[in-house]
Amino acid sequence: MYKPGAFLLLLLFSSVCVLAQQKISGIVVEKNTGNPVVFATVQVKDEKSTLTNANGEFELTVSALPAHLLITHLNYAGGSFEVKTTGEKLKIALDPRVMTLKEVIVGNPAVTIMQNAADKALKAYNKSNFGKAFLRQIAYEANEPVYLNEIWLDAQWKPYGLTGWYPTEARHLQGTKGISYTNTSFITFILSGYLANSFHQKPLLRKADSLYTFKLAGTYLQDGEEIAKINCTPKRELKDKRFEGAYYINTVTNNVLKIEGVIKGMSFKSSGQVSIKNKETEFIAQYRLNKQGDNVLDYAVFNSINRLKMPGAGVQNTDLYTTLYMIDDDSINKNNLEKVSSNINDSNLVSAMTYNKDFWKKNPGIKRTEKEQAAIEILEKTPH
Where does a domain end: 96, 121, 146? Predict the structure, then answer.
């Protein structure tokens, strides 16, 4: 029997469901120049967060409007912004932080700052942080997309790198030509820490200046605390897998906030008659405090440009772009985690997983750039 009251209740319930998922999007730029602010954290209070992409763009689903967005970036003065409607693309401008170089009368303060950071980090060397992580890898050969991995995974992270993982959702696309990118995720995982490990000698060591020289580039204030930028240069005896760039250190808490620079001495193994020579590898990683007050991974970027030589194909560039983003989540099943290893065939593992189109529509990770989206569309048309 038809009941008008029940029909009205159903309509009201449907309206609530529609309103419960609001998608907001926008772009974050630098004030005055209008340049995109890359890898700014965009978060709604007590809800999920995301990063801006290479064009400064972001996209985020919120439970209700109005919503208060918190935008943060180590090199910019962030802020809180209220969003009342989803009708238009937001444009948020941030002021760059001004760095000053303080006068130094005696000694090298950079060595002291790095040693203090190393001493604190080493105390938490084996402390695990568990959470959800998003990994996106995309490769181009001669500017044509040939490989894509997008993975949501349960993860275990320690100050020297991501040590355990378990993929929960994945999409894998592989072109018919070119090389096979097997276990390239391992490099990003193992480099994501701020401490040195057996794979890579970063500047944070028990004796910090044993393999690197340090110079204070400048300081600025963030929330009333001093942030120091320390330029790190490897000494002559350090030839293999070395870092060259800058560490950002909070001199009050001695926490590492960010690393940016290049990885020198990288090499990639290849099979058959293919030879690969690394030309340049850019590395950026940022860290944050979790709810327990531990300094943990926020995101890591690993972009590698290589020269590929194949019989019959000549010499061409092969570019691999990787972003790893991690959020806290205590609900993951830690028993499922597998040890991160250099011989895990991640390509086979994720390509065997069932692609859940509905999941990826709701959980894109980080908003794709037009180039990334075009690459996916090209690869999707490739016969598999």
Answer: 96
Range of the domain at 28: 18-96
In a domain, 10, yes or no: no
Q: What is the pLDDT of residues 261-297, one digit of tens each?
A: 998 877 766 666 667 777 788 999 999 998 889 999 9
Q: How many Å apart are CA 341 and CA 15, to the nearest integer?
A: 48
Last residue of a domain, one of 96, 122, 154: 96
Q: What is the pLDDT of residues 293-333, one digit of tens each?
A: 999 999 999 998 887 776 666 777 788 899 999 988 878 89
- Return d(Cα 227, Cα 98) in angstroms, integer: 11
Asked if residue 4 belongs to a domain, the reply is no
Domain annotation covers residue 42: yes
Helix (H), strand (E), coil (C) string for 211-243? CEEEEEEEEEEECCEEEEEEEEEECCCCCCCEE
Q: How far apart are CA 168 and CA 131, in angstroms?
A: 12
